[in-house]
User: What shape does this take?
Amino acid sequence: MLVEDLLKNNYLITPPAYYLLEPHYESSFSLAELIKFAKSKGTFIIDASIAEEFLRGKGLISTGIPKEIEPSKPSEFRLDNMVARSSEELGSKAQTSNSEKDTVESYPEKLPGETSYISTGTDVETGVEPTSYPKINSLDASVSEGGSSVSTGTPVVEDSSETAELEGLQASSEGLPVEMEPSFDGDPDEVVEAVSTPEDEYDAYSEYENGNGDTRPVIYGDYGVPVKYIEEEVPEDTGKTYSVYDDITIAPKEGFTYRAAEIPEDARVVFDVKNVKFSPPRAKNAAGKEGEFLVASYRSFFRSRLRKMRSILRENPEIGGIIDIGKLSYVRSEGDVTIVGMVNDKRETAKGYVLELEDTTGRVKVFINREREDSKLVMNLMHNAVIAVRGRYSGRGMIFADRIFIPDVPRFKRNKPPLKEKVYAILLSDIHVGSNKFCEEAFFKFLDWLNGDVENDAHAELVSRIKYIIFGGDVVDGVGIYPGQYDELAIPDIFDQYEAFANLLKNVPRHIHMFIGPGNHDAARTALPQPGFYEEYARPLYRLKNATIISNPAVIRLHGRDFLIAHGRGIEDVVNEIPNRSHHRPAEAMLDLLKLRHLAPTFGGKVPIAPDPEDLLVIESVPDLFQTGHVHVMDYRIYNGVFLLNSGTWQAQTEFQKMVNIVPTPARVPIIDVETARLRAVVRFDQFCEGV
Ligand code: D5M
Ligand code: FE
Ligand code: ZN
Assistant: This one.
C-alpha cells in the first residue's frame, strides 16, 4: 500500500497525488524511486504537482496540470527541517503520563537565578522517566526495506491505465483518507439508489467532463485535481447525538474556603488589538484602486515595525547614532556607521554571512566575517526581523560589519513591589472542545479540582489561591480548519462547540476571573493579529459573567505584573527558519521571538499577517511573563527575568499529529505565582485522557 509505505518512511501523500500514483505503484515505479524524487525536491509531502512531475519524468503521463493551478509553494515543509527533527531530538523531551492521581510538582526551589535558563522539560524538573519515542526509520534502511519491484521504465499504455486506476482504487481502499468508489458488482438496487440522489445535493460540486461524455459531478482536491466521482448518496445526517455539556454542574465543595475570594481583584487588559485605532491609508486621488490601498497599508505596516524596533534598539546604550540607509553614500569612508534595517535576505558565504537590510530610505548589503563573535547571531535571525548593524561602509553598497545588535531584552529588570498575599493564575491553551480527541474526562476532573475536590492540603492551598485563568487560543476545534476534520469532530457545529466550552466554564468558581483569547481554530480572523472571537459564533463566551475576551496578542496586567498572551503561531516560523529548533521545545522558539521582539516576524511564511497600517505584533514593552500555546507541548524557561511558558493542550494526539510526529502533552495545569510571575506548580490530569 502506497500510503502506508510512505507513512512508514515519514512521507505524506495528498489524495490527488495518491490517485495519480497508485495505479503505477510497484508496476512502474518503486517506493525508493518516489522517495528519492521527493527528497530531491526537498519535501516530505507528495502532492499532485510532485506526483505529476514524477510521473512525467518516468514517461507515465504526457501532460501536466496547467501552470496556473500548480501551487505557488509546492510544500510548506523543507526536508532539512524535518531531518533536523530527528528521533534523538524528539526523544530528548521526557513526557510520560503519570499514574498517580493529580500529582503536584513544586518548582520554586528549583528555579535558578534570574540570568540563567531553566533547561526545558528535563527529567530532573518533571521527575518522570523519559519515554522512548517511535524512532524515525532512517531513509536508507526503509528504502531497501521497501523492496518494491524495480521500475521497468515502460510507459503504461493509455487504455490500460484506466483499468489499472480502477483496480488500484478498489484494491487499496484501506487507510485512505477519502471515501472510495463503490464497486458495482453487488446488488443492482444499490446502484439505482445511488443514482437517484437529487441533483440539488451536488450544488457544491461542479460538473466534470471526463472525456467520455461522462458528466458525473466530481470534487476537486486542493490543487484543482479531481478527487473522486460522486456515485453514492451524500452521507445523510445520521442524527448523531453529542453533548454540549449543559448537564454538567459542579459546585464548590461544601466547607472549602477560597482565600482568593477575599483578595481584591487587580487585573487590567493593558494591550488589546481591539482598542487600537488605525488611520487607514488614504488614496492619492479619487481613482485609487484596491491594490493601491493594500500596498499603502503594507508600507505603513513596515514603517511602523521599523519605527517601533528602532526605539527598542535605541534603549541599548551600545548603539550610537543611527543613520538612514539612503544617506550612507554621503558618509566619509573611514569611520564606522550604524544602521537599523529589516532583514530581507541572509546568505552564507565561504567566509561569513551576507545580509540584505532595508529601511524606509533604501537597501544595503552587510557582510560579517565568521570570525566575528556577533556572526553567531545571524543563524537566529528570521526574515523581516529588524536589527542594527555597525561597521565600515565600503562605498559600493556594502557594509563590513563588526557588530550586530538584536533588539533583545535588558539583562536586569526592576523588582516589583511584593504582594500582600499569594495569588495564583492558571495558564491554559488549546482546549479544542468539539474534537473527538478533546480530553473531556480530564477537563471534568480539573473542574472538580477547582471546586475543591482535592486530596491533600498542598492541593487545597493551590486551589484556594487561584484567582485567574487565562486561555491562549484554540478553545474549540472549529470546523473546516483542515481537510477531513469533520470525521474527527465530536461536536460538528461551531455554535455548539462554543456553547459546550461555555457550559464547561460555568463550572469555574465565580471568584476566578477568566481571560479568553482566540487561536487559529477559533471563529476569528485567520490572519494575525486576531481581535477576538466573532461575536455571533462565540456569544456564549461573551455572556460568561466572570470572563473577559481578549485579542491575540494581548497584555494583561495582574497585580502589576505584565502577562503577554499570544496563541503562538510564530513558533511555526521559528521552527521553519532557525536551525535546530523543534515543535517539541517551544520555549526555545519563544525565546527566539522574544529576542527579536516580535511575535511573528516573517512575512509570507507559514503565518498569515494582516496588512494593518500598524504592526501590532512587535513586543514593545518587556513583559514579566510571556505565554503561548499552539504547538500542544508544555515547556518553559526564564530569560533575563522574563518567564516563558508554552501551555500544553487538552487534546490527545490527532491522526495528523501522529503522521508528522507531534507528541502533545495534554491535560497539564501550570499554576503561576502572580507575585514572581514564575511557575509555582504543574498539576497533571493526563492519566484521564489516555486513549481518547
Ligand atoms: O496545531 C497543533 C500542532 O499541529 C502545532 O504543532 C502545529 C501543527 N499543525 C497543525 N496543522 C498543521 C499543518 N497544516 N501543517 C503543519 N503543522 C500543523 P493546531 O493549531 O492546534 O492545529
Ligand atoms: Fe491547537
Ligand atoms: Zn493552534
Notes: DSSP finds 18 helices and 23 strands in the chain.
